Amino acid sequence: MNLHDKTILITGATGFIGGHLARRLQTREQARVRALVRSPQKAAPLARLGIEIIPGDITDPEAVQRATRGAHIVYHAAAWADEQGEREAVWRVNVEGTQNMLDAAIAEKVQRFIHLSSCAVYGSLQQLAIDETVPPRRTGRVYHDSKVAAEALVFAAWRQHGLPVVIPRPSQVYGPGSPQFTVRVLKSVQAGKVILVDGGKHHFKPVYIDNLIDALVLCAQQEAAVGEALNIVDGGPVLWREFFLAYGRMVGIESFPSIPYPVAYAYALFKEAQSRLTGQRSSINREVVKTFRSHNSFSNAKAQRLLGWKPAIDFAEGMRRTQAWLRAEGYLD
Fold first, then answer.
1. pLDDT of 251-273, one tens digit each?
2. Please, are residues 184 and 201 in contact by the beta-carbon 8 Å criterion?
3. Where are the beta strands (DSSP E) in 83-234?
4. Mean pLDDT for all residues in the chain
5. At what angle do helices 16-27 and 209-221 cross, to 10 degrees?
6. For the CA atoms of 237, 12, 281, 149, what is the dihedral angle to 10 degrees?
7. Could you give phi then psi for residue 36, rounded to 5 degrees?
8. In the chain, at which end, N or C, are there fewer CB atoms within 10 A of the end residue's CB?
């Protein structure tokens, strides 16, 4: 599918991934891009590129219908991505909001609905080269379970209403603009707050932002992807030790202290109890600690086969570009 002159609606366009996608579609693909945003003020940089800004929220069916009217393609990237949210609030955004988007897309007969999911749907299964034949599973973790539930709605819209859907599942996205795996990491390194778990021997599963955006564009173009879920990951995992050292070396740090997982888990319990008593949120909790103990990986073979996609930027080059961006934005001297 040629995206030139297509009207493409993006939710979550003021976020990290959605913002990169909106700029790519508007400038390089020459599509007519519109964004459904909660804060028009935050979307001002997108408006300056000529992107149509529609105020509204995915939890408001009327706003969703208004934004979807006349769209050929929908990228649904808006989500509650915080692990610490209350279940009702997370569900309202990630599940009910997705249903609102699907209802509007079905009514408008959009040509492609791309739902941005996550490898989190596998429920932190500790297995190497997890592929899409492994079924999603609920674990009781609210964010993970909400993504599983949202995917089920998307597949139901395809089966029951013939809506052409694609579900890309990114892994851990880093690179210019990443709040979680770039800016926050560097600030933690600079503040001397990084402590490895088990020596950092477990797995970070990177996907560089530009590689992800390449795949997302292809999701709208390749007919073979319709009705499919696709892992979007750069390739083999990187050890957490190497991931943090890549940022450490930017500021002259060559090593980090380490503690065993049981000690880290106990400390996370303490920080959670402290947060409940003080009402102040902590960046350390059991879910974070579990992430640093994760020893799994994901296969991208299906995405390469169906999309004709291959990650163009490896980890070394991705970190070079990330460092250049951090310096340009004033995070590094």
1. 999 999 999 999 999 998 998 88
2. no
3. 112-115, 165-170, 172-174, 196-197, 203-204, 206-208, 228-232
4. 95
5. 60
6. -70
7. -90, 115
8. C
Say if residues 117 and 168 touch (Cβ distance below 8 Å). yes
Decide if pLDDT at 173 tops 80.
yes
Tokens of 236: 């083999």
Domains and their CATH numbers in the chain: 7-173+207-235+296-312 (3.40.50.720)
Element (H or E) spanning 258, and its range? strand 258-259
pLDDT in tens, 195-226: 999 999 999 999 999 999 999 999 999 999 99
Give the span between the Cα atoms of 319 and 327, in whole angstroms.
12
- pLDDT for residue 199: 97
Q: Dihedral sign for Cα 72, 90, 184, 243, please.
A: negative
3-class DSSP string for 2-23: CCCCCEEEEECCCCHHHHHHHH
pTM for this entry: 0.96
